[in-house]
Amino acid sequence: MSKEAKLELDGKAHTLPVIVGSEGEKALDISSLRADTGCITLDESYGNTGSCTSRITFIDGEKGILRYRGIPIEELAEKSTFIEAAYLIIYGDLPTRDQLRQFSELFTEYQFLHEDMKYHFESFPSGAHPMAILSAMINAASCFDDELMHWRWGKANSQFNIYAAKLMSQVRTIAAYSYRKSRGLPLIYPKRAYKYTANFLHMMFSSPYEDFELRPEVVKALDLIFLLHADHEQNCSTSTVRMVASSQANLFASASAGVCALWGPLHGGANQAVIEMLEEIHREGDDGSKFITAAKDKGSGRKLMGFGHRVYKNYDPRAKIIKRACDDVLSKLHVTDPLLDIAKHLEEAALKDSYFVERKLYPNVDFYSGIIMRSLGIPVEMFPVIFAIGRMPGWIANYKEIMDDPKSRISRPRQIYIGRALNHYVPLEERK
Length: 432
Ligand code: CMC
What we know:
Layout: E1 4-9, E2 12-20, E3 26-28, H1 33-37, E4 57-60, E5 65-68, E6 71-72, H2 73-79, H3 82-91, H4 97-109, H5 117-122, H6 130-143, H7 146-150, H8 158-182, H9 196-205, H10 216-228, H11 236-245, H12 251-263, H13 270-283, H14 289-296, H15 317-332, H16 338-352, H17 354-358, H18 366-375, H19 383-404
Antiparallel strand pairs: 1-2, 2-3, 4-5, 5-6
Helix pairs in contact: 3-10, 3-19, 4-8, 6-8, 6-12, 8-9, 8-19, 10-15, 10-19, 11-12, 11-19, 12-19, 13-16, 13-18, 15-18
Carboxymethyl coenzyme *A binds near residues 305 and 364.
């Protein structure tokens, strides 16, 4: 294959190198385009733009493939755990037994928040969305660590291991506290004996008098949800994290920005939006048909939430795994949920409908994840928070990738200005 592309502009020929990824993906390297031609490229919402090269996650959207560090998501979902997958994503290889133990010990060591952070929790109004609390408190947590505030990449990289574990561990504590705060419940401290996901459930649902019963199927289902969300290459929130990190902001500030980007209903907020959509369909006694009709009408302002993806033009592989897990968990917990029937009917109808077929719109990870989380007793406003906890390793790995790259520069896109040409100030009394 040719290693260059030719571009003719104003009668002059230019060559652009072709970059080929390890799975054969191709990109035109336009990094010298503006210097050579005076032109930039325009690609609103970045459908055709690679913002970086990365070694972390591979997606083939046409074939429905997702791999973390080369390992298929199906294998990890079956054989691994969230924490092991987090290590893989952040450091590039599966951990040895010792590495996994050390990694887990760091989580235990840093799982407590500074006690003064309780006052910050208290200042949020009850009913504050937990994503707002999460983002604010991740940033606040960095203020309690003087070294982190003054840490710059390239300097004392061994500190990175501590900050990465601290962020992942504390995010779970903050998330559980934000839920307890929103319900006016006393805060529950993490326990040394519990592993990552069990500890989160404990902090969410135990009471000061009685520990929450940690049913293995519940712990496993939530761990799987975390694992399936752990990374997804250059999505909106990860690109935000990389953008913020490129200015050399600290890891916590970058992750806090990621939470804000994730919050929207087109991204990590979709799992909440799916349940709200299914509840509305249920309330109205619709079997989903009316909603599908509305979702096809651009003027209705409706969309089939949990369907479609910028990259997947095939079944999202995470959705397949989650759908199976959903059936499994609900049957083990003896839960029947009318929303599951509506979701299945919606999926079946949409997959036969020419609107969805022609646009290659398939269920994504969020379509069934909310139903599992409901069955575990997780309230709907916490769904995007669960996504954020899961996505933390991906954000950390992307942060590290930037940090480790000596050629990394601040991200700074350009624009094509389409506003008024030169215009002049008119004094107030002369304005019409
Ligand atoms: N319902 C109805 N129509 C849709 C939907 C949907 N869920 N998704 C896309 N379309 C239409 C879209 O209007 C466009 O129609 P047309 O060609 O007539 O203008 C066409 O399908 C192609 O859309 P697209 O360019 O592929 O969409 P996009 O890449 O701009 O947006 C998306 C991707 C995920 C934001 C979008 O599909 C969507 O809003 N889905 C619902 C929200 C959702 O489930 N988000 C979670 C995504 S997965 C979790 C994550 O990683 O964040």
